[in-house]
Amino acid sequence: QFAYVASHDLQEPLRKVASFCGLLHKRYTGKLDERADQYIGFAVDGAVRMQALIDHLLAFSRVGRDAAPAVPVDLEAVYATVVGDLAITIEETGADLTHDPLPTVSGDRTHLSLVVQNLLANAIKFRKPDEPVRVRMRTERDGDVWRISVTDNGIGIDPADAERVFVIFQRLHTREAYPGHGMGLAMCKKIVEYHGGTIGIDPEYTAGTRIVFTLPVAE
After folding, report:
1. pLDDT digits (tens, 9 = 90+) for 8-40
2. 16, 32, 62 - which closes a domain
C-alpha cells in the first residue's frame, strides 16, 4: 500500500523536475561553462533514472492490486511473443534459445509474460563475454504444479546472493556493467507468488544460472 501511494503521488512532482531539467539542458548547454554543463547533465540523468524507478515501483505495487480474473494462459504462446520482442537482442548476441513444450496455466497473461520476459532477458544480459549464449527453458509436471526452469551458461549467481537477488532494487553489479534497476527478479517473485507458486535459484547448478519456478496446474 505504501509503495503504491508513494510511487503514485511522486509521479507528478517528479515529472516537473524532469521537465525543467530537460529545458535547462536544451536551452543552456554550451552557453555556460563546462562544469555547469556537467551538472545539468547529472541532473537530467538523475531525473530520468528516478522516473524509471518510480514507474517500476508503481508496476511492482500493482501486482495483485489490479487483479484481473484468472484465465487460461498458453505459456507456449507467451514464450513465442517474448522471443519475438527480444528478437533484436537475440540477434545481436547470437543467443541460442531452446525450450520444452510449455503448458497452459491459469492466471494473468500480462503478469506471466513479464516473468518469462524478465527471466529470458536476464539470461541473455548476464552472459559471459567469451562464450556463445545458450538458454533453455524446461518444464515438468510435479503432482499438482508445473516446475519450470530457465537455465543459462552465463556469469552465474553466488549462492550467498540467492535470496538477495529477489529483493526489490538490489543489484549485484554496477549500472555501467549491466544496465537495469534491480527490479526484474523481485517482480518475478511477486507475480509467481501471487499465482500460488514459488521461485528460486537452483544451488546445484554451477555452469551459469538456473532459476526454477512453479505454477499450479490449471483445473
Report:
1. 667 677 778 888 888 888 888 888 788 888 888
2. 62
- 173 band by pLDDT with thresholds 50, 70 and 90: low
Under the banding of pLDDT at 50, 70 and 90, the label for residue 209 is very high
Do 43 and 83 fall into the same domain? no
On whether both 135 and 32 belong to a single domain, the answer is no
Q: Which long-range contacts (CB under 8 A, 24 or more apart) does 166-171 make?
A: 166/199, 166/200, 168/57, 168/60, 169/53
Grid cell digits, residue 156 = 552465474
Measured CA to CA, the distance from residue 219 to residue 217 in angstroms comes to 6
Instruction: For Cα atoms 215, 184, 106, give the angle at the middle one, nearest 5 degrees.
Output: 25
For residue 160, give the C-alpha cell.
Answer: 550467498
Q: 90 and 39, same structural domain?
A: no
* Residue range(s) defining the domain that contains residue 144: 71-216
Give the total number of structural domains in the chain. 2
Q: Based on the domain organization, do 91 and 33 belong to the same domain?
A: no
Across all residues in the chain, what is the average pLDDT? Answer: 84
